Amino acid sequence: DIDEVLSETIDFVLEYHKGEVKGKKIERNQISDYFLANIPWYEFLSTEESANFFIEPLSSRLMFTALKPVDWAFKKLKERKEAWHHFYAITARGEPLRESTEQRINNHFPEIFDKLFFCNHYWPDFPRYTKEDICTEHGVSLFVEDNPRYAIDLEKLGIKVFLLNKPWNANFKGQEHPWIIKVNTREDIKLEL
């Protein structure tokens, strides 16, 4: 995954919006769902407003300077790439964010990813893909994710998933999902297969 795995995207989005959505304060620990209208006290948001909360900052020029990659990512991925691992970046983002996302990935992670895939989850005008479809087609056997719904879907395919501990997966019941390993820090992720 890209967001919340390779960068702390939520922090950037909150900073971009000065901690507000439509004039109402919102903090990181309140974000229990990426679709803001599913969060108590934010049900008043439309589908478009919920999506634009993320799309607008990720489309801005500010993204290139303010959205930093996590410290460990490039070094760890480069080590594993040199050990003959193959990496794919698979994101729920869509085609309208392709150019800026590709540029950012190429700047911060040169020659790491074999391919970058866009699922187009919020763009009905483009073909939609699931992370499961992409992983199946490309033989992905290990995934790093922050969204429990995606993690569960990937686990059903026999894919080992490291789930980064985030407010929106606080209620995840790991004992029900043996192929999903919840980790508190990225350093706890073991990329060895």
Describe this structure in words.
- The protein starts with 8 loop residues before the first helix and ends in a 10-residue tail after the last strand.
- Helix 1 packs across helix 2.
- It is built from seven helices and seven strands.
- By secondary structure, the chain is α/β, with parallel strands linked by helices.
- The strands form three sheets. Strands 5-6-7 form a three-stranded parallel sheet, with helices on one face. A two-stranded antiparallel sheet has the order 1-2. Strands 3-4 form a two-stranded parallel ribbon.
- Helix 7 links the parallel strand 5 and strand 6.
Distance between the termini: 18 Å
Uncertain residue segments: none
Order of helices and strands: HEEHHHEHEHEHEE
If you average the pLDDT, what whole number results?
Answer: 91
Overall geometry comes to globular
Structural class: alpha/beta
The tally of helices reads 7
Number of strands: 7
What amount of the residues lies in strands?
5-15%
Summarize the structure.
The protein is α/β, with parallel strands linked by helices. It is about 35% helix and about 15% strand.
Search tags:
three-stranded parallel sheet; 193 residues; single chain; alpha/beta; globular; two-stranded antiparallel sheet; 7 strands
Helix and strand arrangement:
Blueprint: H1 9-16, E1 20-21, E2 24-25, H2 47-59, H3 62-66, H4 73-82, E3 87-91, H5 98-108, E4 113-118, H6 131-138, E5 142-145, H7 148-155, E6 160-164, E7 180-183
Parallel strand pairs: 3-4, 5-6, 6-7
Antiparallel strand pairs: 1-2
Helix pairs in contact: 1-2
